[in-house]
Amino acid sequence: MIDVAQLTVEEAKAELERLAREIARADNAYYQKDAPDLTDAEYDALKHYNAAIEAKFPQLARADSPSKRVGATVQSKFNKITHRFPMLSLGDVFSIDEVADFVMSVKRFLNSAADIDFMAEPKIDGLSFSARYENGKFVSGATRGDGVVGEDITENLKTIKQLPLMLPPDAPKVVEVRGEVYMAKSDFLTLNEKNAAEGKKIFANPRNAAAGSLRQLDAHITAERRLSIWAYTWGEVSEPQWQTQEEFFIKLKEWGFPVNPLNKICHSLQDMEKNFAHMTEIRADLPYDIDGIVYKVNNISLQERLGFLTRTPRWAIAHKFPSEQALTRVNNIRVQVGRTGVLTPVADLEPINVGGVIVAHATLHNEDEIKRKDFRIGDMVVVQRAGDVIPQLVEVKIELRPQDTQPFEFPHICPQCGAHAVREEGEAAWRCSGGLTCPAQAKEHLKHFVSKDAFDIVGLGDKVIEEFYDDNILRTPVDIFTLEQRNGAMDMPDLFAAADDNELHIERRLGWGKTSAQKLFAAINARRNISLPRFIYALGIPQVGVATALLLAKNYGSFDVLQQDMLARETAKLVAIDGIGANMAQDIAEFFNEPHNIATVEALRAQVKIEEFVDEQIADSLLSGKTIVFTGMLEKMTRAEAKAVAQKYGAKVAGSVSAHTDFVIVGADAGSKAKKAAELGVKILSEDEFLETVK
Ligand code: IVH
């Protein structure tokens, strides 16, 4: 870049032409392909350079200048929606001095000496949407597109549960609510992990993942991704009902939209500075990405007086955070083995401060990713804290590559156990074929089993698991529950220690004593009753995280029902569950059809009692905890459906009537069971009475 002050008219013209081309290409990579090829800082620098030249040579500003464009052009494959009110962009600034200039310019424009209130809002790093409501009903949704024409994402938006589909009757007849669709950092990580294992696209950051998930022609794909929204502005409104941005947020909340609780009124520049410092501090801990703070004049009539420049309002500005990237060296590339055997390459880096956090490792995802970007040991690379979550390597600085580097050879055997690794057709991940005979897999499996959301056994931390595994004390989850029984008597004086070398004595290990061993046994015994969702999650079924385990528990109620259905490969019910797709259903069924897994489950069930799942919402249902029997022909539903409903409401369904039966539900032509119920004095319900109880 040439110093703007030094540019001749000819050079300025040439530079503006080059910048228009380069920025258009970068926009295309970012918006259309969801694969940015410039860092944020590089992109911002180009835009600023362009703006600076235009400020000095306004007569040279091109019709296609990036300063006159908001962003993406419309993708042809989606229907287009012309915004009745354009979706605007915001001017960016990078320092508090520039914010001060902005505040000054607002005051000057309004000819006001008094302080003006601003709403400071986290600038969500997602993509903006506009949701149109007519007569209280959600009728259409659009992306911003180029600000004038967007893409029709009505069906996709409908899949986002946070978006209200109906507004209360007192809402305006027509209102367009606008905001940001984003993906939470944790959902982004889960998606990337899953995609890496399945050889699907890896997203560089949550923003790209959100864009890739929302702009799907098949809205079912959108539905499978976890997207969230914050609402923050409006487009067309038939009857405005608010005078300030603050009042608008109150309305939004009344209407059921998520409104960021961190939005904050600032009465002065000092307030704005304080808020920015605070947000900078907590940014990394937020569950979603923000890339700056947006300041908006709070008072709407002042906003109206201020009006707009070409594409940005005069009443709002974005104060962006500095970019979180740095340059460092790859000292080593090693391959880790995960719980399911996936080989994940990891780069060990020369430790470097990236936006306040020391980064020493970064994931390289899989073989293809390394090949595509040609990461080598010794390379200088750009590290990015993608969305403040997991450090990523963005690119290699080829011009800084040392002479003697070699392309990285991805291993085809497991670096931990030596078993051969396989890469299935269409998958990107190599997997160790050693299964639980691979120490790395077995250890990760044990760690998962005792982790916080699974059996949550305090005292069995990662280090203890590693040691106990290596010393043959714990090899499988069942071993955890036989540990105390296998441990030699604890009251034996240490004097005799040498006499029983072969016996297990945890209390005699380095760092252990009687008290800590006893504590560990107590922690294990405290988990002999385990809730259904925890048990399911602990099994480590591929793709089944905490949320899915809970869904399974809710829908099946007991482990037996789940296991029976899965053994019979009854996946119809499974895929009917909102949040479980065909691919996941297949993994679940496969898990239960693997004899080794069933053996593990059986051995575990000899040690622990899995509680039946009682949904709190239905705990007060009449059927909750009751044993019921169906007999005769039901008219309104099949027997299987009735059984599922009863289980959903917490009932145990038995096959025959006994003194333990609480209710018998009697359909047409009921025979001996109804008779027996009458004899035993068991309460009899008709089909309709049964349905009443589950309403
Ligand atoms: S207000 C006229 N508020 O930033 C005002 N935008 O550079 C229009 N964004 O397109 C936008 N958080 O995608 C606004 N709290 C917030 C925002 C926000 C994120 C995005 C939005 C917009 C872009 C503008």
Quaternary form: single chain
User: Which spans of ≥5 residues are poorly predicted at pLDDT below 50?
Assistant: 70-76
Cα end-to-end separation? 70 Å
Q: Note the overall shape.
A: globular
Domain module tally:
6
CATH architectural type of the largest domain: 2-Layer Sandwich
Spell out the blueprint of helices and strands.
Blueprint: H1 9-32, H2 40-56, E1 80-82, E2 92-93, H3 96-110, E3 118-124, E4 127-134, E5 137-143, E6 149-151, H4 154-158, E7 174-182, H5 185-198, H6 206-214, H7 219-224, E8 228-237, H8 245-255, E9 264-266, H9 269-282, E10 290-297, H10 300-306, E11 316-320, E12 325-337, E13 343-354, E14 357-363, H11 367-373, E15 380-385, E16 391-396, E17 421-422, E18 431-432, H12 439-450, H13 462-470, H14 477-481, H15 483-486, H16 514-525, E19 529-530, H17 532-538, H18 546-556, H19 559-567, H20 572-576, H21 582-592, H22 595-605, E20 609-610, E21 627-631, H23 639-648, E22 652-654, E23 663-666, H24 672-680, E24 683-686, H25 687-693
Parallel strand pairs: 2-11, 19-20, 21-22, 21-23, 23-24
Antiparallel strand pairs: 1-6, 3-9, 3-10, 4-5, 4-7, 7-8, 10-11, 12-13, 12-15, 13-14, 15-16, 17-18
The structure holds 2-(butylsulfanyl)adenosine.
Describe the structure.
The protein is α+β, with helices and mostly antiparallel strands and 695 residues long. It has six domains: 4-68, Orthogonal Bundle (Helix Hairpins); 92-320, D-amino Acid Aminotransferase, Chain A, domain 1, CATH 3.30.470.30; 323-433, Beta Barrel (OB fold (Dihydrolipoamide Acetyltransferase, E2P)); 436-527, Orthogonal Bundle (DNA polymerase, domain 1), CATH 1.10.150; 530-610, Orthogonal Bundle (DNA polymerase, domain 1); 627-693, BRCT domain (Rossmann fold). It contains 25 helices and 24 strands. The protein has a five-stranded mixed β-sheet with strand order 2-11-10-3-9. A five-stranded antiparallel β-sheet has the order 14-13-12-15-16, with no helix packed on it. Strands 5-4-7-8 form a four-stranded antiparallel β-sheet. Strand 15 (380-385) and strand 16 (391-396) form a beta hairpin. Helix 17 packs across helix 18 (546-556). The longest helix has 24 residues, at 9-32. The N and C termini lie far apart (70 Å). Bound molecules: 2-(butylsulfanyl)adenosine. The site of 2-(butylsulfanyl)adenosine has 15 residues, from strand 3, strand 8 and strand 11.
